[in-house]
Amino acid sequence: MRRATTKDIPQIVRMLADDPLGSTREVVSDPVDAGYLAAFQAIARDPNQYLAVAEVAGRVVGTLQLTFLPGLSHRGAWRAQIEAVRVDTPARGTGLGRQMIAWAQHEARQRGCRMVQLTSSASRKDAHRFYEGLGFEQSHAGFKLVL
Fold this sequence. Notes:
Order of helices and strands: EHHEEHEHEH
InterPro entries: Acyl_CoA_acyltransferase, Bact_Acetyltransf, GNAT_dom
Domain N-acetyltransferase: 1-147
Strand order of the largest sheet: 1-2-3-4-5
Distance between the termini: 33 Å
Protein name: GNAT family N-acetyltransferase
Pfam family, one: Acetyltransf_1
Largest sheet: 5 strands, mixed
Structural class: alpha+beta
Oligomer: single chain
GO molecular function, one term: acyltransferase activity
């Protein structure tokens, strides 16, 4: 696992687009859409953001974003939010996803976080089984409002 660079953006976007939900909202283009570049720059400047890629034999095969969140609840505990977890299709089933989540948990502990949380679309039943198998518990109902 390493911090993503601008050179990784095309492969990250391809992985984000490689599922039924992502295929309807992501734009795989050359050159990379300016919105992705602006978002990457904002993430890279923010010390509480870590856009990570998993690299095997020089090839990016996984990604996730780790966000460190301060809060007053739980006596001022920091928490880490894991988002946009993707493993490239050929690398699925190899244990890479488990390794990526373990890495994220380690990073969260290193930053003093007292919990790790994530969200997953209600339609991603396989992902839910994966996270539950790693010890995550479904604890909240999520809501969103598209602006």
